[in-house]
UniProtKB/TrEMBL annotation:
This is Peptidase A1 domain-containing protein. Residues 129-463 form the Peptidase A1 domain. Pfam families: TAXi_C (PF14541), TAXi_N (PF14543). Residues 1-22 form the signal peptide. It comes from the Eukaryota. Keywords: Aspartyl protease, Disulfide bond, Hydrolase, Protease, Signal. The keyword Hydrolase applies. The active site is at D147, D350.
Length: 467
């Protein structure tokens, strides 16, 4: 049996070592990874891997908002795992209710009904990744939380006192200093297109377009719908970019300067930038750790040979999310026995979600197979709703089975063994209450994978090992 093992040593450019074992012709795949990779706490930033290799695109560095690569260093407010999971589940229930066809009410553990408003937005409390762009003329740097589950980009704007806005590290955007700023008139087509996100008659006292976003977390940013120049990189400017100029945040959070919306609706950057830069195509690569960078790239890469593609689904009554159709899951190279009907509600990709959630039957199969493959390691008590956690005390390295997701069209994606399967020693998946709910692929499982969203061609691509 030993002679049938193929051992390949992979030395990654950011310094960690992984040992990949493929067991003969059976295709069993495992990776030996250092336990330190599950609890990264880098003190310095490495950018050796986190760059877009395609020179024909506009690219913006992307970093974990609390890591050393963050564009603006802040006093650390790192959430505990339990608190992060609580916020992440709150967002999960909100997003799932928006996208699922099911009419059942989702309830939290204490049976309180989760409120799901119709306004634009999701829940920015759990989001992890930021980019820095320039707003106005001259361009003023703004560090924004990137979110594929939100449509509207917004920043905090002057005037806004400390009782109405949270403290941010960069100065608030001052519209009066920008030569290209203008508020959107209340009776304009752009304002009417925001109908789902406006409160009351949608007008300010000056007859400008007003917006109010209700997030699943309970946050309610309000302000003036506006337009100005958005600078993505030197020479890459989106003129007359529509965004929210926020004057009141309720409640206030210590976070970045606002939200960069990358959802599917016309208000998002993905579509607003399409005329001049992207052609309706963009991609994200989330870094493996807080001490490394990824990228947000606008435009189609000049070479897609490294990608596998799956169709992008569109449900007429829920058009804002990026929804895909899974067809299978494999653990250590072995396909799991999951009936195709289990995936009938599909999954969405969401950069603002941390942990992935699967239909109940799919998760039960994944959990059982993963536990079998990890049987040599002692289980630890559950953390929040993560019920497959391990005690790696005394282990310098652990052998992790490859977890692969397969989507319609045959696109199979191997999750990154070091950063994309376990979070703080827990399997980074959990299960819905049933199979009638839509699943979500969160940010942990997307780490190091370039996810290419090609809206004109109706497809999503994956390229592993991209950052």
């Amino acid at each position: 049996m030993v002679s049938s093992l193929l051992l390949t040593l992979l030395v990654c450019s950011y310094g960690s070592i992984a040992l990949v074992l493929a067991a003969g012709h059976h295709g069993h795949k495992f990776t030996v990874v250092p336990t330190a990779s599950f609890h990264s706490s880098e003190a310095s930033c490495s950018t050796t891997r986190g760059t877009d290799p395609h020179s024909n695109r506009v690219s913006v560095p992307l970093a974990h908002r609390n890591g050393p690569c963050a564009p603006v260093q802040t006093t650390k407010h790192e959430l505990s795992l339990a608190e992060m999971l609580r916020r992440d589940r709150e967002r999960t229930e909100h997003v799932t209710r928006r996208v699922s066809k099911s009419k059942r009410r989702l309830q939290s553990d204490d049976d309180a009904v989760v409120s799901v408003p119709a306004q634009l937005g999701s829940s920015y409390n759990s989001q992890m990744y930021v980019v820095t762009v320039g707003l106005g003329t001259p361009a003023v740097p703004q560090t924004l939380i990137m979110d594929t589950g939100s449509e509207l980009t917004w920043v905090q704007c002057k005037p806004c006192n400390s009782t109405d806005c949270y403290t941010q590290r960069l100065p608030l955007f001052d519209p009066s200093t920008s030569s290209t700023y203008s508020p959107v008139p209340c009776d304009s087509p752009e304002c009417r297109a925001l109908a789902a996100g406006i409160d009351g008659d949608g007008c300010t006292d000056n007859w400008d377009c007003a917006y109010k976003i209700r997030y699943g977390s309970g946050a309610v940013p309000t302000g003036t719908y506006s337009r100005d120049a958005l600078t993505l990189a030197p020479g890459a400017v989106v003129d007359s970019f529509l965004f929210g100029c926020g004057h009141h945040q309720d409640p206030k959070f210590d976070m970045a300067d606002g939200i960069l919306g990358l959802g599917r609706l016309p208000q998002s950057l993905a579509w607003q930038a399409s005329a001049s830069h992207t052609g309706g195509v963009f991609s994200l690569c989330l870094p493996p750790t807080g001490g490394s960078t990824g990228f947000l790239a606008l435009g189609a890469p000049n070479d897609t040979s490294g990608f596998v593609f799956t169709p992008l689904l569109t449900i007429d009554e829920q058009p804002w999310f990026y929804q895909l159709m899974p067809t299978g899951i494999s653990v250590a190279g072995e396909p799991l026995d999951i009936p195709p009907a289990v995936f009938r509600e599909g999954v969405i990709t969401d950069s603002g979600m941390v942990i992935s959630v699967l239909q109940a039957t799919a998760y039960a199969a994944l959990r059982a197979a993963f536990r079998r493959a990890m049987a040599e390691y002692p289980l630890a008590p559950p953390v929040g709703h993560l019920d497959t956690c391990y005690n790696f005390t005394g282990y310098d390295n652990v052998t992790v089975p490859t977890v692969s997701l397969t989507f319609r069209g045959g696109a199979t994606v191997d999750l990154d063994a070091e950063s994309g399967v376990l979070l703080d020693g827990c399997l980074a998946f959990w299960g819905q209450r049933g199979d009638e709910y839509t699943g979500i692929i969160g940010s942990v499982n997307q780490r190091t994978i370039e996810v290419l969203y090609d809206m004109p061609r109706g497809k999503v691509g994956f390229r592993t090992g991209a950052c």
